């Protein structure tokens, strides 16, 4: 069986599981069951198993649709599940939460206290009007997946996928980079009107979700929905200012030095890839592998050097149809880690083209997979797996750093030095982007006028881009291209989920700083923090990993100093 065939087999869903009738009687039985405080634990286990089964089906259908954005049948099957199963499931879940919250004299044990509080808050936020509106919201997001998944680029007389075109942005030849950038820009402008229309629909839907829940704006609604209790919007605004003041000057200086070394008159858009800055010596980008199978083997050996248990988990993914790495037409161009809770199995989707960035992204996504494995092993209740979103990127980002000392089999000492340098530069280059993404959404959902046009969105993005990326020279170029920078996966698919990447990147640097002096201890703390899952508050999870939950200006300044020292060393 080929690997793709194994993936397809893993994602198979029986027709019965796409029907609400398959689940309805069991939810009704849980609702009808008499419940005392002493009976809660057993009742929760039944509910957890049922929710896991439902989540399993949704995850597999969603992933299959992403692998086949050009297959109307795959899209329809997923949308049918969203429209016909998720609304009654949402209502049943609300009823069960209310039943649990009404149990007299029930005091949740420590390992369930946070989830109990979340259930209470979710129940308070629930509105019947939002059940059907959520179906509309999912359909709108799926439209974005279909549009971008089927996007093509004409480059050099051939048609290529988005990831294949982006690969050429790393060429040491400036003319080749510019050609790829212009081809991508042309492709993006072609799909822009359709994406603009999707976003206007999403904005109205999201505003209505907030109004239905008696929230002032969608930011307030999303804050509650995401259970953000450890920081405020004001803390995020302060983070934007800290990045502007501490990181943007550093990034500007770093890019200025690279441009000067290469003899460039200025940094044009095709000269800046925040994930892979130009090589000052003008060398070809690293190409550590050619095929997805080679990347798997590269990673397998790296994990074997890092930790036997992690290596075994990755081998399980390889053998179990839990990896789909190759880029191909009709496949969504993003990368992510999905999760199937009934079997405690993560699934990684990528679009690799042979770059060092692909290596980093694989370690990142498999770090997520390790989180799923370890939290699933330690936490029986499905709601207690993974973690709050402010921590969930630490397992992935820290894995990018923890594997650094275990790539000698794949990279020469010189190339490993380059890979390490790119990774550290990537943290610096990412923070202004993260601040810009977050700042745009704060404006969009809490400050923008009620009558909102696409032109206003474009203008705001331009304003922010000039603040956070002032070193890029756009003179003489079509400003429409720059203005559409907000046409990004997270803006459409997971609103307000982005600052967490910045929080966790800062923490991941802290984990790596520990590992420089105590590799074994840092790894054990890393795995211990994963096992805590979603049953511990954010600050406690950070402490378990050996770092602080901080993203203030002083903390950022200290970590930027550390990164500069490492880059110079």
State the secondary-structure class.
mainly alpha
Poorly predicted runs of 5 or more residues: none
Distance between the termini: 48 Å
**Main sheet attributes: strand count, strand direction, barrel closure:** 3 strands, mixed
Instruction: Please indicate the percent range of residues in DSSP E strands (runs of 2 or more).
Output: under 5%
pLDDT average, as an integer? 96
Shape: globular
- How do the strands line up in the largest sheet? 3-5-4
Radius of gyration: 23 Å
Strand and helix order: HHHHHHHEEHHHHHHEEEHHHHHHHHHH
Number of strands: 5
- Give the helix tally: 23
Helix content: 55-70%
Cofactor: Zn(2+)
Keywords: Hydrolase, Metal-binding, Metalloprotease, Protease, Zinc
EC number: 3.4.-.-
InterPro entries: Pept_M3A_M3B (IPR045090), Pept_M3A_M3B_dom (IPR001567)
Summarize the topology.
Blueprint: H1 3-10, H2 21-32, H3 40-67, H4 72-84, H5 86-101, H6 113-125, H7 129-149, E1 153-155, E2 158-160, H8 162-167, H9 174-212, H10 218-225, H11 233-262, H12 292-306, H13 308-319, E3 323-326, E4 336-340, E5 345-352, H14 356-378, H15 394-402, H16 413-447, H17 454-468, H18 479-483, H19 489-493, H20 499-517, H21 519-531, H22 538-544, H23 553-568
Parallel strand pairs: 3-5
Antiparallel strand pairs: 1-2, 4-5
Helix pairs in contact: 2-3, 2-5, 3-4, 4-7, 5-6, 5-7, 7-9, 9-10, 11-16, 11-23, 12-13, 14-15, 15-20, 16-17, 16-20, 16-23, 20-21, 21-22
């Amino acid at each position: 069986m080929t690997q793709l065939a194994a993936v397809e087999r893993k994602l198979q869903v029986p027709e019965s599981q796409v029907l609400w009738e398959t689940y309805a009687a069991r939810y009704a039985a849980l609702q009808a069951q008499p419940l005392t405080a002493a009976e809660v634990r057993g009742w929760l286990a039944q509910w957890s198993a049922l929710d896991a089964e439902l989540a399993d089906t949704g995850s597999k259908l969603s992933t299959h649709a992403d692998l086949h954005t050009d297959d109307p049948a795959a899209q329809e099957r997923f949308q049918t599940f969203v429209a016909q199963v998720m609304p009654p499931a949402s209502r049943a879940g609300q009823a069960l939460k209310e039943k649990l919250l009404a149990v007299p004299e029930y005091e949740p044990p420590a390992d369930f206290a946070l989830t109990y509080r979340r259930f209470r808050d979710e129940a308070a936020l629930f509105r019947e009007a939002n059940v059907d509106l959520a179906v509309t919201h999912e359909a709108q997001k799926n439209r974005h997946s279909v549009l971008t998944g089927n996007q093509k680029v004409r480059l050099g007389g051939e048609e290529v996928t988005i990831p294949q075109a982006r690969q050429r942005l790393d060429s040491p030849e400036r003319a080749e980079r510019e050609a790829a950038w212009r081809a991508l820009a042309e492709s993006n402008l072609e799909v822009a009107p359709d994406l603009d229309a999707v976003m206007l629909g999403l904005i109205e839907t999201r505003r209505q979700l907030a109004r239905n829940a008696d929230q002032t704006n969608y930011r307030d609604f999303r804050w509650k929905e995401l259970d953000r209790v450890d920081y405020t919007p004001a803390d995020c605004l302060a983070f934007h200012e800290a990045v502007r003041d501490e990181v943007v000057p550093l990034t500007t200086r770093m890019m200025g030095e690279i441009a000067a070394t290469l003899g460039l008159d200025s940094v044009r858009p095709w000269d800046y890839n925040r994930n892979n800055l130009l090589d000052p010596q003008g060398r070809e980008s690293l190409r550590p592998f050619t095929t997805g199978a080679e990347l798997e083997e590269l990673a397998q050996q790296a994990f074997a050097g890092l930790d036997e248990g992690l290596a075994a988990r990755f081998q399980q993914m390889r053998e179990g149809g839990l990896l789909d790495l190759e880029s191909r037409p009709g496949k969504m161009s993003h990368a992510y880690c999905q999760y199937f809770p009934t079997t405690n199995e993560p699934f990684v989707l990528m679009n690799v083209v042979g770059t060092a960035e692909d290596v980093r992204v694989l370690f990142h996504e498999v770090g997520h997979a390790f989180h799923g494995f370890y939290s699933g092993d330690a936490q029986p209740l499905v709601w207690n797996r993974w973690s709050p979103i402010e921590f969930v990127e630490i397992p992935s980002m820290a894995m990018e750093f923890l594997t650094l000392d275990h790539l000698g089999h794949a990279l020469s000492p010189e190339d490993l030095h380059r890979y390490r340098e790119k990774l550290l530069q990537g943290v610096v280059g990412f923070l202004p982007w993260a601040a810009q993404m977050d700042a745009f959404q704060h404006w969009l959902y809490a400050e923008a006028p009620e009558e909102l046009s696409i032109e206003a969105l474009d203008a705001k993005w331009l304003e922010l881009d000039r603040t956070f990326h002032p070193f890029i020279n756009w003179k003489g170029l079509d400003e429409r291209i720059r203005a559409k920078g907000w046409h990004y996966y997270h803006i459409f698919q997971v609103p307000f989920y982005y600052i967490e990447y910045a929080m966790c990147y800062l923490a991941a640097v802290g984990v790596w700083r520990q590992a420089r002096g105590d590799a074994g201890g840092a790894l054990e703390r890393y795995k211990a923090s994963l096992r805590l899952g979603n049953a511990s508050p954010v600050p406690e999870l950070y402490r378990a990993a050996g770092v602080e939950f901080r993203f203030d200006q002083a903390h950022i300044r200290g970590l930027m100093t550390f990164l500069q020292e490492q880059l110079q060393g």
